[in-house]
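ok trying again, last paste got cut off:
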Amino acid sequence: MALADAVLAREQALLDRVLATLRAHPATGAALRSARHAHQAHVRLLRGAVPAPTSATASAAPSGTASGTSTGTPTPTATRTPAPRAQRVAVPAHVPAALAAVAGAEQRLAAAERGAGLHARSGPFARLLAGMAASAAQQSAHLGTAAREGRR
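nice, full thing came through this time. structure:
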């Protein structure tokens, strides 16, 4: 799997977790608002960096203009990238535990994106990954505090 593909899959999985938590606990909307917006933006941006699959199993629902290479270096192409499939996410029954679960996922995502940045073959893509890692680290801190304080 290309670097950009892996990053997109992780961002989509985190977005799926945030959305599942919002569905299970609508009162968490304020706490999860910035995480939702950040990951939606990251997914949109990354869809533009991931080439469309060439297999017959690819989804028929394209979204966004794709660009990218298997090295993780974004370059323009004329293909479109299908949206990754949403994953089923188990959400804890209690709000603080649900927020803590998202905070932990954000922390793991930050570490993964920092690592991915070391493998990027272009400076601009490495900087993008560093920014995404910083965003996830910030969300982890914010949501961890919200979970401990019982905020929604």
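cool. The beta strands are 62-67, 76-82. Residues 3-52+62-149 form a domain with the Ferritin fold (CATH 1.20.1260).
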